[in-house]
Amino acid sequence: MLKVTDLFVAYGQSEALHGISFDGNKNETVAIMGRNGMGKTTLFKSLMGILPVKSGSIEVAGSEVSKDESFVRVAKGIAYVPQGRMIFPTLTVEENILTGMENSQSRRIPDDIYALFPVLFDMKRRKGGNLSGGQQQQLAIARALVTEPKVLLLDEPTEGIQPSIIKDIAKALNEIRKIREITIVVSEQVLSFAMDVADRLFVIEGGRLVHETSRADTDVGRIKQYLSV
Amino acid sequence: MEFSELLNIGLMQGFAGLSLFAVLLLMGLGLAIIFGQMGVINMAHGEFMTIGAYTIYLGSHLSSHYAPSLVSIYFPFAIVLAFLFAFALGWLVEWGLIRHLYKRPLDTLLATWGISLAMQQSFRTFIGPKEVSPTLPDWLLGSWAPKEGLDIPINGLFVLALTAVVTCGVLLALNRSRWGLRVRATVSNRVMANAIGIDTRKTDRLTFAIGCGIAGMAGAAFTTIGSTGPTSGQLYIVDSFLVVTFGGAASLLGTVVSAFGIAQTQSITEFFLHGSMAKVLTLSLIVLILMIRPQGLFASKVRR
Fold first, then answer.
1. B236 occurs within a structural domain
2. Is the Cβ pair B197, A95 closer than 8 Å?
3. Which pLDDT does position B303 carry in this prediction?
4. From B191, which residue of chain A is nearest by alpha-carbon distance?
5. pLDDT at B122
6. Which tens digits make up the pLDDT trace of B106-162?
7. B149 located within any domain
8. Every domain of chain A and the residues it spans
9. ipTM computed for the complex
10. What is the domain count for chain B?
């Protein structure tokens, strides 16, 4: 569903990603583990078209997107939940979700979104900026889901969120994958969360993927070593 | 002078202020949505207003020359045309110039100022340096006298109604339509709006054009209270900027309130003082209030 080949990304002269290749299958969750500054967010931003790709290819469901603008990529089936949520603080919860429905005919938010995140239904008239961090995270996921993605990218969804809500988010992600059979790519520093959701784990270090493992064979000690400072 | 006479003068002067309020509000609305959407300060906004005013003149000229029977009904159609002309030109300007300058906001200031000068000269060359006034249809002339000594001009009432309709339309469109949602999402976070599927460039172009179109309607309103010349727009641009900054750049309600405040202060003090003194008083008040509230009168409060 998602196929990334030899992705190089640079900030001006300084190269940040040195040839990243990985793929995500239908109905699979992939976790990209790594410490701060190793290139997780750079990778996600370049997948989404926020940062330009120097070379390499990104394929979503067979179509090449690496030259497209962000909104075209959304239409082709990638959705993005950025680090720090980035919901629209001045819009209501309902309006925030509606912004994701640009390519849909209807202006009604599908019921399954509210079924997944009941708290958003209760707060739909509130301003997005007045929600708590965990609620904003759920809102950002809901907003991404209504674009009907084939590939869902989540950049550090657990950052700055209290542990009980982290469990809820893991549950929601597993639910989403089960119902929609999409590819989920999540970047993480919290190993327990990644072990809860991911089928495969990659470790990114210095702009390269240095380790790949399936959940069943994961050597927890080894990944912890990569993540420790 | 008796008290009732004074009251009448106050009311009439206040009403003159309302006409000014209408023009300022329409101008400010256009400026505010353009500035809010893409951070472009449109120095040529006054000239888009002039285009609207000339469109009305064109309508009046054509109808009185070729179809005198239509003189009484051309006005509403000319208003729509004024919007469309200014809208189309705004679209062109955004496409040809502004969109290349989004990364350089100060340059847009210079570029739109250049456009403003070029447009003024074009008016002078192709339409003429003399001020023109359209022949207003009979039903817009005269005044409404609810009681002795109190005359409310009908064209003022008309302008007020037009402004109310346009303002409500814009507010409604911003809060209820898809275009409005796109605009508000882009204003809130441009990169993220694009990454959630909104074509921000198209939104920019449409918004710029709509802002200019509203300026065109302001021009239509303006023809009922003054005569149109190549530099008519320039006279209003400074006041319109004041309206926007004073009201708080992101708040349309603020634009309405500040347009009202500025127009009324201006108009009422003008009656008792000299014209320039009225201006001095208005400006000092604005400076004073902006010193206390630099973000403008209204700014929406949320956690960011």
1. no
2. no
3. 47
4. A50
5. 94
6. 888 899 999 999 999 999 999 888 999 888 888 877 777 777 777 778 888 888 899
7. yes
8. 2-227
9. 0.90
10. 1
pLDDT tens digits for B166-179?
A: 999 998 998 889 99
Chain A nearest C-alpha distance from B41 (Å) = 22
Hey, are the CB atoms on A90 and B302 less than 8 Å from each other? yes
> Closest Cα of chain A to B173: distance in Å?
14
Class of domain A2-227: alpha beta
How many Cβ pairs within 8 Å bridge chains A and B? 80
Please check whether residue B278 lies inside any domain of the structure: no
Could you tell me how many residues make up chain A?
A: 229
**Number of neighbouring beta carbons within 10 Å of residue B35:** 20
Distance from CA of B196 to the nearest CA of A (A): 5
Predicted confidence (pLDDT) per residue in A90-136, tens digit: 899 999 999 999 888 888 899 999 999 999 999 999 999 999 989 99
Looking at residue A79, what DSSP letter applies?
Answer: E
Please list every residue in chain A whose beta carbon sits closer than 8 Å to the beta carbon of residue B303: 89, 129-130
Beta carbons of B195 and A90 less than 8 Å apart: no
Instruction: Return the SS3 of A208.
Output: strand
Residue B51 domain-assigned (yes or no)? yes
Question: Which alpha helices (H) appear in chain B, and where do they start and end?
Answer: 3-38, 45-66, 74-96, 105-122, 154-176, 178-188, 190-195, 200-223, 232-247, 252-272, 275-292
The pTM of the full predicted model, rounded to 2 decimals, is 0.87
Determine, for residues B185 and A71 on separate chains, whether the beta-carbon distance falls below 8 Å: no
Which among A128, A163, A158, A130 has a CA at the least distance from the CA of A142?
A128
